[in-house]
Design brief:
The chain has 246 residues and is α/β, with parallel strands linked by helices. The chain is 44% helix and 15% strand. It has a single domain, classed as Decaprenyl diphosphate synthase-like (Undecaprenyl pyrophosphate synthetase). The structure holds 3-methylbut-3-enyl trihydrogen diphosphate (2 copies) and magnesium ion.
Length: 246
């Protein structure tokens, strides 16, 4: 039986987040510059987005650029920003055809103007789509996001719009950039690294984590299905006993 057919459609995670990693090592393996790896990563983005939408996943979040990634060589950063503009412009039509809405989290205002404009335009042009939301984490840092939320809440308290005693998980969640998105039940990282790298720290408090050695440019639908099958074989206990959840 195909991997896809083994997936239980009634037990899908609503939200899957992916740390797309390994482009540089993939390129090195092929004797090519790092940027070649980034360009080949686009195919994996397309395949994964398509696979997620076909299955009926509601939210797919892709970590595309972290605040720490600015520390890479200028040439690579520029290439990534250019690739972002090109890809977004090229893919808007496909997103609309597939009824996929684009969204973004991260410090978008600090992206180069061209990248930001292309992104905002695509978000606007896909905003009425309903099948799946594709969230790009761009210039994203979980610590940055948490600090921004703290500032927002502090401001509400200072202006007498919130009492300190009213601060709870829901209030905090509403102050995050993911306020309208359920927490990801499942987080995938490619390339064999087993760390979070400043991604969605609050939101992944109870996520199932999955690490695959596959480099991102090689990641295909079957790798995605394999990961989901792994997720479906886990018991999520949330602090309870196995007997309680069964
Ligand atoms: C992920 O691949 C893409 C980004 C972080 C933008 P890398 O570029 O991190 O590839 P490796 O980890 O160096 O192989
Ligand atoms: C995490 O990958 C960021 C993205 C995938 C965009 P990195 O390659 O930047 O992470 P580290 O440096 O290995 O932690
Ligand atoms: Mg990396």
């Amino acid at each position: 039986m195909d991997l896809k057919d083994q997936i239980d459609i009634d037990k899908l995670p609503k939200h899957i987040a992916i740390i797309m990693d390994g482009n540089g090592r993939w390129a090195k393996q092929h004797g090519r510059p790092r940027v070649f790896g980034h360009r080949n990563g686009v195919k994996a983005v397309r395949e994964t987005t398509e696979a997620a939408a076909e299955l009926g996943i509601e939210y797919l979040t892709l970590y595309a650029f972290s605040t720490e990634n600015w520390n890479r060589p200028k040439f690579e950063v520029n290439a990534l920003m250019t690739l972002l503009v090109e890809t977004i412009r090229k893919e808007v039509e496909t997103l609309n055809k597939n009824n996929i809405r684009l969204n973004a989290i991260g410090d978008i205002d600090k992206l180069p103007t061209k990248s930001r404009d292309a992104l905002l335009e695509a978000i606007e042009n896909t905003k009425t789509n309903t099948r799946m939301t594709l969230v790009l984490a761009l210039n994203y840092s979980a610590k940055w996001e948490i600090i921004e939320a703290v500032k927002d809440i502090a401001h509400q308290v200072k202006t007498d719009n919130l009492a300190i005693d009213q601060i709870n998980e829901d209030v905090f969640k509403s102050a995050l950039s993911t306020r309208n998105i359920p927490d990801p039940e499942f987080l995938i990282r490619t390339s064999g690294e087993t760390r979070i790298s400043n991604f969605l720290l609050w939101q992944i408090a109870y996520s199932e984590l999955y690490f695959t050695p596959v480099f991102w440019p090689d990641f295909r639908k079957n790798h995605f299905y394999q990961a989901i099958l792994d997720f479906q074989n886990r018991e999520r206990r949330f602090g309870m006993t196995s007997e309680q959840v069964n």
